[in-house]
Amino acid sequence: MIELEGPDELDSCDLTNPIRMYTDPVTHVDLEKEGTRYFTSRNPESCKNGLKLPVSVQSHEYGPHAHEYGPPPPFGPFPPLEPPPEYAPPEPVRPPPAYGPPPPRPSAATYLNGLSFVLFVGLLASYIGM
User: Which region ranges are annotated with the description Disordered (predicted)?
Assistant: First the structure.
């Protein structure tokens, strides 16, 4: 990671004249002076791909500790939570059966009619063939 002079160097990824170079894998940077500091990767391609970090440092008087907060609002009991009637769960609906009644089976008379026809044709064919 390197620190650059200003926004022009950061925008153009001009890494030729850095202010400071950090070489440790884990780096601690003191941000004690007020102003904006500009950091990027030492790799120019990473900078061109958007690995840039401008850091705006403000003085402590503008920090979160400078504000005085009033006392918290009084804590009271919460009203019970009940869903409004229009959001009540719907009445359960009984689903239709997955399968209806089985189709009617043909009667035995249908089978006998078909069998007798086949026998008649067979007998006729054998009589003619003789």
Answer: 58-106
